[in-house]
């Protein structure tokens, strides 16, 4: 009887070691917010540095930083009782002095995903290169809709083609999950 328990323990430990070693290949962190209805995946090399929610429980902010400190992500999510005009949302955030968003560089890129849509643009000044993605859900029958800003911030000296690739990889995993 002892031998079967010993064998079970060996298989169990082997399974854990296998899972840990195989997860290193597809490693990363799944960020799932069930209240603000979004999900995305951060690759290895990123850490959560802050999360704050308003006292009214209608907005939340997250901050993430790459381990080498060459890029940060600011994510803002707002819970609304109706569908928000995405252009009004963008205008208000771009003009918000506390966010200190640099001037937009170029035009917006737009994509419609059916239940939600997205606009993105590059923002630049002498110190920072940023990519900002704005999302809004379009669910008129739902009790809640959401708007999101996902902001990638790098110093000019640290922004390169690898940064662009990582931004595209991360943002491709961002999905509003409201139904």
Features of this protein?
three-stranded antiparallel sheet, alpha+beta, seven-stranded antiparallel sheet, Protein Transport Mog1p, Chain A, 179 residues
Blueprint (SSEs and pairs):
Layout: H1 2-23, E1 29-33, E2 38-42, E3 46-53, E4 59-66, E5 72-80, H2 86-95, E6 103-112, E7 116-124, E8 128-137, E9 145-155, H3 161-171, E10 175-176
Antiparallel strand pairs: 1-2, 2-10, 3-4, 4-5, 5-9, 6-7, 7-8, 8-9
Walkthrough of the structure:
The structure is a single chain. With about 180 residues, the chain is an alpha+beta fold. The protein is built from three helices and ten strands; from the N terminus they run αβββββαββββαβ. It has helices at about 1-25, 85-95, 160-170; strands at about 30-35, 40, 45-55, 60-65, 70-80, 105-110, 115-125, 130-135, 145-155, 175.
CATH topology: Protein Transport Mog1p, Chain A
Count the beta strands.
10
Average pLDDT taken over every residue? 86
Helix-strand makeup class: alpha+beta
Number of helices: 3
Instruction: Give the N-to-C terminal Cα separation.
Output: 52 Å
What is the CATH homology-level superfamily? Mog1/PsbP, alpha/beta/alpha sandwich
The main sheet orders its strands as 3-4-5-9-8-7-6
Major sheet characteristics = 7 strands, antiparallel
């Amino acid at each position: 009887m002892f031998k079967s328990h010993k064998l079970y323990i060996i298989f169990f430990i082997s399974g854990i070691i296998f899972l840990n070693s195989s997860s290193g290949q597809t490693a990363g962190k799944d960020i799932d917010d069930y209240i603000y209805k979004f999900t995305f995946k951060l690759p290895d090399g990123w850490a959560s540095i802050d999360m704050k929610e308003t006292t009214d429980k209608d907005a939340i902010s997250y901050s993430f930083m790459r381990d080498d400190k060459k890029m940060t992500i600011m994510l803002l999510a707002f819970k609304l009782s109706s569908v928000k005009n995405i252009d009004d949302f963008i205008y208000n955030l771009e003009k918000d002095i506390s966010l200190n968003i640099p001037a937009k560089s170029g035009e917006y890129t737009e994509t419609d995903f059916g239940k939600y849509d997205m606009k993105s643009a590059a923002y630049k000044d002498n110190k920072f290169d940023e990519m900002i993605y704005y999302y809004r859900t379009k669910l008129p029958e739902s009790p809640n809709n959401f708007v999101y800003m996902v902001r990638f911030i790098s110093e000019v000296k640290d922004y390169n083609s690898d940064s662009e690739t990582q931004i595209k990889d991360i943002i491709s995993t961002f999905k509003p999950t409201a139904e």
